[in-house]
Design a protein that fits this description.
The complex is a heterodimer of chains A (428) and B (378). Chain A has 428 residues and is an alpha/beta fold. Chain A is built from 17 helices and 8 strands. In chain A, the strands form 2 sheets. A 4-stranded parallel β-sheet of chain A has the order 2-1-3-4, with helices on both faces. In chain A, strands 6-5-7-8 form a 4-stranded parallel β-sheet, sandwiched between helices. In chain B, α14 (329-344) links the parallel β7 and β8. The model of chain B has no long low-confidence stretch (mean pLDDT 97). The chains are: A alpha/beta (428), B alpha/beta (378).
């Protein structure tokens, strides 16, 4: 048996080492927020486990406000496990993925879920849950993986059934149904946290989250500027929204992102000296290949102003009454990047992708096709047709977002390079 | 031709003489994916509900234009059949949110990529909940009301409560008849093979239910007098996802593994639970389709295991084979959990991955043979 949470303690050491280096370099400062967020969260979870605070496994497509209202510590098991991509040269999740395979879990299941299951099977990798919450979106992986997690851990699980949002839906009725599911979640959290909903605390947490959303939306508008003022793929509420949203520390992180980009704009700084191409990465790119954006910036002058994970469609919640807050939270829960596109028909993803191309003024779309995400794989043909109508080139390639053995960067980097060169040539 | 022979034929082709006669009389046929679509509503509208299969497909070349190599091969072949115009006998298509593969395939139809026989082609996607509780029943009942209304609007007709009650009765009769057939499989020498039963269940989804019910009654009389199969090595349950190819079961049965019970969607999941004939029809349908024995697209793993273990006892099955189409996450996870539980209970259980076409025949034979030997050694 390994030492409890050894990987995450190693990650903390690594972050403590990196922090001073990054904060002292103005051009790297935008990466500070993601490191600070991860560091803060790991510390929070380890402390919670040590002090016996209640832990909720919330599927990663859920914003965290309601959990913080009940003083629960949200631990989306996929997020906890994928942090290990930062270890062992990107191979950090392989051990737990293999453990799931050895137990008979099918290889095509999303590797984040395989690894989360492996964490449970091997033990000492993740604190145990007191309860589990799983909405029925975005995909088949989550629906079955959470049934497995509930079986292994024995923790009580609430499944929040979400209607299918498509052209045939009665949206008003669907929203009412979903709001009632959120009210059911509140009852579930009351039961398993042993606390009654405190309307004042609810308002306080949601107002805090509103401030973070305000910062995130303003930040996103700065990322639309041409030339792009800040390097890298940027950030958004998906970065930590599922575990920290509603806490002042999270708001500070969003503010940090915004302050950095504003500062760069004020100083006339840009992501690259000469911007030649703007890319829309409209799916999750390999977590073990984080320098891909830097490589394209340095080598090709290609910037990445928007991505699937940073595409936020949030609104500020009306906090005038408890009912308006709950309704707002319900609406917001349907907007998590990926969750949103997984709630219904292909139109949602396709329209969002086109909207991202348009508003962020992109020249091309890259879709890193994660092997587990069949709900995306099944719409690629339709997306290709719609982008073709607009004259926007699309690159699709196979990868496993969390397992470099399946798709090493050496395999897909040449495809990206060839595509980017082709786009650059056609622009000239 | 005996009724049994008659009932085993529709599984071999996409369409059949029953559908052709129905169409000749001006009848309409609506295709549907999968057992989560309450077909009674279509039947009450005077339509022939037809469960979608890809029978006869030999390639997924055209389907792959709008699908992907990580999508299950049933869906890819079915889409291919659609793009080749093999479903032109359909007047409409209804799908439930069975899985990610089906929901995206449905969008290909909706985006107009499939040439249909005569526009306007009826298309409807049903939002069927993944959990079963009062709120879900209320939602689905309202969804079925909208479904009914859309059929009425599209086909310019009216569906009354009496129509729905008649349809519920007709399909309940089908379900009772199939259950009677399954009762016979509990015998020491069952009079039908698993492959024959699969064919019969397929027929029940590909012909007018009234004609099916008549033939079933005749067939039950026939097989009651038939010598049963007693030369088997083991009695098996076959569980898993979409399986429409009787040859798959024939391979197992040729080796001596008689399939006496199943947990398939062309099997018990299609017909085991009845609809309450006395309740308000749409609510009764909503309850039945949500509280029925479930596919792992739904929550309820423990209830599924309980049902499977009860069936294993009732049908005196010696072990379970779980078949799953590659890339099916629902059955991937469920198969693993089932294997864990059955092993713990000392029940032989094996998960087999397969493709839509019978490509891995050698592997199937080898593994089924080894499984049977393992059972015999116990």
């Amino acid at each position: 048996m390994v030492e409890k949470y050894a990987d995450h303690k190693e990650l903390l050491n690594l972050m403590n080492f990196l922090m001073p280096l990054i904060s002292s370099n103005e051009d790297l400062r935008h990466q500070q927020a993601i490191i600070m967020y991860n560091k803060y969260w790991i510390e929070l979870v380890l402390k919670a486990e040590e002090e016996g605070e209640k832990i909720v496994y919330n599927q990663f497509n859920m914003y965290a406000e309601l959990f913080h209202v009940f003083d629960l510590v949200p631990v989306p098991p996929e997020i906890w496990t994928l942090l290990k991509c930062g270890l062992r040269d990107g191979y950090g999740m392989c051990e737990t993925i293999d453990a799931a395979h050895e137990a008979g879990i099918h290889p095509e299941l999303c590797s984040a879920h395989k690894s989360a299951i492996g964490d449970q099977l091997l033990g000492n990798r993740i604190p145990p849950p007191d309860m589990i919450v799983n909405p029925s979106f975005p995909c088949d992986n989550t629906k079955i993986a959470y049934q497995i997690l509930a079986e292994i851990t024995g923790a009580p699980m609430l499944v929040m059934d979400c209607p299918y949002f498509g052209p045939d839906i009665d949206e008003e009725a669907a929203m009412e149904y979903w709001v009632n599911r959120v009210k059911e979640l509140i009852r579930f959290l009351e039961e398993h946290s042993g606390k009654k909903l405190d309307p004042d605390r609810l308002k306080e947490v949601v107002e805090e989250a509103n401030r973070a959303v305000d910062y995130a939306l303003e930040y996103a508008s700065y990322r639309q500027l041409k030339p792009l003022p800040q390097p890298g793929p940027g950030g958004g509420t998906a970065m930590g929204g599922m575990n920290l949203m509603g806490l002042p520390q999270y708001t500070e992180l969003m503010k940090g992102l915004l302050d950095d980009i504003k500062d760069r704009v004020a100083k006339g700084k840009t992501a690259v000296p000469e911007e030649k191409l703007r890319l829309n990465w409209f799916y999750l790119h390999a977590f073990y290949d984080r320098d891909v954006y830097g490589w394209l910036e340095r080598e090709k002058g290609a910037v990445s102003p928007i991505s699937f994970a940073t595409y936020d469609r949030l609104e500020v919640i009306d906090t005038s009454t408890t009912e308006s807050i709950i309704r707002g939270v319900a609406r917001r829960l349907l907007q998590f990047p990926m969750g949103r596109q997984g709630t219904g028909s292909s139109d949602i993803y396709i329209d969002d992708c086109i909207d991202a191309v348009t508003r962020w003024q992109c020249d091309a779309v890259i879709l890193s096709g994660h092997a587990g995400c069949k709900y995306i794989r099944g719409l690629i043909g339709l997306l290709r047709d719609e982008l073709r109508k607009m004259g926007v080139p699309l690159l699709v390639f196979d990868e496993d977002t969390f397992d470099p053995r399946v798709s090493p960067p050496e395999e897909f980097h040449p495809k990206i390079e060839e595509f980017v060169d082709m786009c650059l040539a056609s622009k000239e | 031709m005996t009724a049994l022979e008659e009932l085993t034929k529709p599984a071999d082709t996409l369409t059949n003489p029953y559908i052709e006669r129905w169409k000749e009389k001006g009848g309409k046929v609506i295709g549907y994916y999968c057992t989560y679509v309450p077909i009674e509503v279509m039947h009450a509208a005077g339509m022939l509900p037809y469960r979608m299969r890809a029978t006869g497909s030999t390639s997924s070349e055209l389907g792959d234009l709008y699908s992907d190599h990580l999508i299950c091969t049933f869906v890819r072949h079915s889409l291919d059949q659609a793009m080749r115009g093999e479903y032109k006998f359909l007047d409409g298509l209804v799908a439930a949110f069975s899985c990610d593969h089906i929901r995206r395939m449905f969008d290909v139809w909706r985006y107009g990529k499939i040439e249909t026989a005569q526009p306007p082609f009826y298309l409807r996607f049903l939002s069927v909940p993944f959990t079963a509780d009062d709120a879900a029943v209320e939602w689905l009942a309202a969804e079925l009301e909208r479904f009914k209304w859309s059929l009425e609007k599209h086909f310019q007709m009216t569906i009354t409560d009496d129509d729905l009650r008649e349809s519920i009765k007709a399909y309940n009769e089908k379900r009772r008849l199939l259950k009677s057939l399954y009762e016979l499989r509990k015998k020491e020498s069952p009079p039908v093979t698993g492959a024959e039963v699969l064919r019969i269940v397929i027929a029940s989804t590909a012909m007018p239910v009234e004609e099916f019910n008549q033939l079933m009654k005749k067939m039950l009389d026939e097989v009651n007098g038939r010598d049963g199969f007693s030369d088997y090595r083991a009695r098996l349950m076959l569980a898993g996802g979409e399986l429409e190819n009787p040859a798959y079961i024939e391979v197992i049965e040729e080796l001596g593994g008689l399939v006496v019970i199943d947990y398939l969607c062309f099997g018990v999941r299609d017909f085991w639970d009845l609809v309450d004939e006395d309740a308000e029809p749409l609510v009764a349908l909503a309850k039945r389709y949500l509280y029925r024995i479930s596919c792992p697209r739904n929550m309820g793993h423990r209830e599924r295991v309980t049902f499977i273990n009860d069936m294993l006892k009732e049908f005196k099955a010696d072990g379970v084979i779980v078949e799953r189409l590659k890339f099916c996450d629902a059955w991937g996870g469920e198969g693993a959990m089932l294997e864990w539980k059955e092993r713990e209970a000392g029940i032989p259980c094996m998960v087999l991955e397969r493709e839509y076409l019978m490509a891995g025949l050698g592997q199937l034979r080898t593994r089924a043979q080894a499984f049977l030997e393992m059972i015999e050694k116990r």
